[in-house]
Amino acid sequence: MGIDELSPHDIGLVLDAAEATSSASVRSSGAEKRGAALRGRTVINLFLEASTRTRTSFELAGKRLGADVVNIGGDTSSVTKGETLLDTVKTLEAMRTDVIVLRHSASGAAHFVAARTRASIVNAGDGAHEHPTQALLDALTLRNEKGRLEGLVVAICGDIVHSRVARSNALLLGKMGAEVRLCGPRTMMPSVPGALGKTVRAFGRLEDAVRGADAVMMLRIQKERLEGATIATLREYSRFFGLGPRVLDLAKPDAIVMHPGPVQRGVELDSLVADGPKSVILDQVAAGVAVRMAVLELVSRARDEASSNVAAKAVS
Amino acid sequence: MGIDELSPHDIGLVLDAAEATSSASVRSSGAEKRGAALRGRTVINLFLEASTRTRTSFELAGKRLGADVVNIGGDTSSVTKGETLLDTVKTLEAMRTDVIVLRHSASGAAHFVAARTRASIVNAGDGAHEHPTQALLDALTLRNEKGRLEGLVVAICGDIVHSRVARSNALLLGKMGAEVRLCGPRTMMPSVPGALGKTVRAFGRLEDAVRGADAVMMLRIQKERLEGATIATLREYSRFFGLGPRVLDLAKPDAIVMHPGPVQRGVELDSLVADGPKSVILDQVAAGVAVRMAVLELVSRARDEASSNVAAKAVS
Amino acid sequence: MGIDELSPHDIGLVLDAAEATSSASVRSSGAEKRGAALRGRTVINLFLEASTRTRTSFELAGKRLGADVVNIGGDTSSVTKGETLLDTVKTLEAMRTDVIVLRHSASGAAHFVAARTRASIVNAGDGAHEHPTQALLDALTLRNEKGRLEGLVVAICGDIVHSRVARSNALLLGKMGAEVRLCGPRTMMPSVPGALGKTVRAFGRLEDAVRGADAVMMLRIQKERLEGATIATLREYSRFFGLGPRVLDLAKPDAIVMHPGPVQRGVELDSLVADGPKSVILDQVAAGVAVRMAVLELVSRARDEASSNVAAKAVS
After folding, report:
1. What is the largest CA-CA distance in chain A?
2. What is the pLDDT of residue B314?
């Protein structure tokens, strides 16, 4: 659903499972790579908002675990033909679907349907609310690089207020004891940054946010989510809030640069930084498949335990 | 192809096979759920008219039987680029496709190509002609609920004349000895209802059609299939032909409410009815996967027998 | 990548492998048809230019070899959202993708990314440059029919200058010692036909190109690739450059007719020819799946050898 309802213990559990998945799949050869943990299960990617990257990551995660994976995409109207989201989900559940991975443009969509269906819902992004697997994969990448999350200083820069990635990351990092610095143009900043966690602070200048940071996380400017002229021009945005080598030098010497993708080179990130030695952008992508495999497996195991509890009760 | 060419015996056979499939997949645990009946076979969903629901149902049916399933969608022109439908189908056949599940906007499309290809064609809806697997899943749902089809009184309400669902259902129910009542605005009624079967009758008022019925089947108003103003407004339609609790009370006390989906709440069905205890809409969805698994398996078995007959002849 | 960099020996190797694949899959029954050569491997069809036919052929090839196959389609802008092609490919590579099958509208796209990624790239058509698997499947079809490629006379007719199919075929046939005759309206002919090979010659009249040929390969007129009025009307095109029975009679008595599909009947090909005894169009389609299975398998084997060499070096 969201990082909001996970405890630090839960988060650690998912990251450990993802790390195990990831190193197992590196060690094993091609022929053994495919697990059987989800053999015979059905995973449906219900993406009512386009996202090739996240959909592909979940699709590969499901297929590598042996699940039957079905994609349903396109805009809401063409998929549902006047049907409510809940009816769409209940229809998929009636087809004996185990897990529905839902991306939706409305904040709270995943919560809403999860409370009303027996299929397990995984939130793959709901409006400007949360994108929990993105925050988990970012945390896994950070932990792999730095050995820990606690005490890290992480700058998150860009369109904070419209970004579910920023929101989920700030929540997760705050819970794990990292210091979070949010930075962006005034029109793109939340009015009460502290609401995201005690360790979250706002910065108006990129230089100040980056200075001494362990990691700099640049967000994609999602033009489609901006209404009206909140930024004068992309050029102006990139001049003040794009990350180039000069600003990056203000961070710690071993700082890393992150981006959820797709990167718009020359807008949020200078190519020298995107392709530089501090960039871990592709490590984030790899961590994404591992985290999603872990999430699908944990969700399935929880389903099995729930249903065997029901069976035990029925017997006794 | 269509219900039209099936005997009552054939229909019983498919329903029995679907029931076996369905109960087998409920009993077995996840790991054993996946059968191997279609392992190594290729099923192509050639949907030249959009339908997420039916396509997903066939896709899951094929994958659960172990087949390689490939989806081809989009509108005819983008798929075929000036190619004829028959050339498209023959191309897929040449790729060693075993079963082609065809949805097409032209009545008779499935018949036309089936007569001219060696691949097995399953009709997933052809224009206003037939949608046989929908009628079979409706029959399975009815039989599960009522224990029989013979003697049942079934009201089918909505845009009868443009509906392949109504047509296939009326044909099937008539063959199985059920009484069929068709009901809808005058502009949406067939001119000779009796052509669909001896037990088929037409009604102008919803109340009359529903009175004493064992089942009420509400059709989706497919705006895209209507040309011009055959209904004044959706509001007017829903006032006279939408099913609410008051009209439903006229049916038998144990009557069930059916809908092929997607439901447009407040148009064909009041939410009180759609979510009420008499609604079996989600059971229909579950029956859909079972029926399609049975159809794919029966079609494959028929192919095997045909080819071993050919082989036997070649040897002798 | 392209036929250009393959030696005659390489080409023979692929054709032999495809022939073995093809006869193996004919012999074995359904249940055994699926190989395990690519079990646990990931193949991504990245089709940034639409092509149902080629995508389906690669998808079936991958699935029949047991690979996890993921399709990414649509136009470039919607897929990449401002991301460069190379970033898209590197993202897929980071998801541990073994093979990326790339179709792109820019000539040289496959080369460009292949030089910069560790994933194996298979060129499924790049602009007006090459479509190597199409030339290989055409060669397999020709060899199956004629027992050899050397010394054959092959006429290729249509929009030569915009056609990657013509280009790849001319290169391949030239390398294998066949005589190639290119024919089309003056505006659709390359300025230096000899650049494609020593045995390549240009013809202005279809009759002259077809006379005495062993095979006539008709190209699809791709309206979308033509800018402005390079042909007066389709009718005029078909009158002078469409193949009918009268012109076909000028070829050798045992000549065959080929077309990469989709065929536009009445434009490039008269139906009498498309459906006639000399047409091998559907054999080409069947050869396509076999060639793509062989290519995916050869590419994977090369990956394994490369990685075991790396491992051996690491150990020694």
Report:
1. 69
2. 63
Which chain B residue has its CA at the smallest distance from A90's CA? B282
| pLDDT for A316 | 58
Q: What is the mean pLDDT of residues B293-314?
A: 85
8 A C-beta contact, residue B122 and residue B46: no
pLDDT for res A25? 61
Longest CA pairwise span in chain B (Å): 69
DSSP letter at B188 equals G
**How far apart are alpha carbons A305 and B10 in whole angstroms?**
41
Q: Please name the residues in contact with B181: beta carbons below 8 A apart, sequence gap of 6 or more.
A: B153, B154, B155, B156, B200, B201, B202, B203, B209, B213
Question: Who among A84, A93, A304 is closest to B265 (CB)?
Answer: A84
| CA-derived radius of gyration, chain C | 20
Q: Is the pLDDT of residue B223 over 70?
A: no
Laid out side by side, the sheet with B200-203 consists of B200-203, B179-183, B153-157, B215-218, B256-258
* CA distance, residue C290 to nearest chain B CA (Å): 9
**Helices A132-146, A164-175: crossing angle, 10 deg rounding:** 50
Peptide bond into A185 cis (omega under 30): no
Contact across the interface for C72 and A56, Cβ inside 8 Å: yes
C-alpha span between B199 and B173 (Å, rounded): 9
Phi-psi group of C197: left, alpha or beta (phi > 0 → left; psi -120 to 50 → alpha; rest → beta): left
For residue A44, name the pLDDT band (cuts at 50, 70, 90). Answer: very high
Cβ distance A95 to B60 less than 8 Å, yes or no, reads: yes
Q: What is the pLDDT of residue A32?
A: 45
Beta bridge mates, B79: none
Position B30 scores a pLDDT of 46
Confidence at residue A8, expressed as pLDDT on a 0 to 100 scale: 96
- The three-point CA angle B174-B178-B182 to 5° equals 70
Are the beta carbons of A33 and C44 separated by less than 8 Å? no
Q: For B289, which residue in chain A has the nearest alpha carbon?
A: A95
**Residue among C69, C72, C95 with most chain A CBs within 10 A, to mutate:** C95
pLDDT of residue C191: 86
Please report, to the nearest 10 degrees, the dihedral formed by the alpha carbons of residues C105, C110, C112, C115 taken in order. 170
Residues A291, C95 contacting (CB under 8 angstroms): no
pLDDT at C61 over 70: yes
pLDDT score for A221: 85
Q: What is the pLDDT of residues C77-86, one digit of tens each?
A: 667 777 899 9
Amino acid at site A176: M
Task: Give chains near C: 3+ CB pairs under 8 A.
Answer: A, B
Task: Give residues with Cβ within 8 angstroms of C167, minimum separation 6.
Answer: C128, C129, C130, C131, C196
